[in-house]
Amino acid sequence: MKKLKMQELIFTGVYTAIYFLLVSIVMVVLKVAVPVFDSLLLPAASALFSGIIYLLMLQKVPRFGGISVMGGVFGLLFLVTGHFPMSFVPSFVCAILADFLQYNWKINEKIRTTVTYIIFSFGLTGPLLPMWFMKNAYVDSLIRRGKDADYINYVFEPITQIGFIICVVSVIVCSIAGIYIGRKLLAKHFQTKR
Fold first, then answer.
1. The whole model's pTM is what?
2. pLDDT in tens, 92-122
3. Does residue 24 fall inside a structural domain?
4. Are 50 and 22 in contact (CB under 8 A)?
5. Residue 20 belongs to what domain range?
6. In a domain, 170, yes or no
7. Which spans are transmembrane here (predicted)?
8. Closest CA to 129 of 174, 97, 94
9. 24: exposed, middle or buried (Cβ count in 10 Å: 0-12, 13-18, 19+)
């Protein structure tokens, strides 16, 4: 039993590292391709390509904990890398909720996994949500960090009502597409039924 738990911990670390690497690559590509809207599109673009990682995590760590750790790592990164103080909350909440539902919600497995992946994917909206819902506090935190008005205007350019709708809808759509692609890849390369 101890060996199994150690293996699960190792798999969690490996898939968390792969997820981090993939999100980092997506972030760099978006910064070059769409510099103003990169942060707005990051959660959706990451969800599109991370479905396989999520499914592999479920396959190798079939119990509560793995999803929470994977999302929680990003929460910690947001906390220690100078993001707005509340930016870490969605990462933790979405990851723990997805983890809990994945192993306690008694519905069709494919539907459950798709829904939990959508929830998990919203964890990357952590740095964005305070910009819509706590704008004044966010601006004050940027000023305290020495950012000028031009930088603040640049950061808030895509933070509109339409931008919010685009962010939410794109995360849902790309999560569904990402989990679909992930299932196809698993069926082809890992011979799994998930």
1. 0.89
2. 999 999 999 999 999 999 999 999 999 999 9
3. yes
4. yes
5. 2-189
6. yes
7. 12-34, 40-57, 117-139, 159-181
8. 94
9. exposed
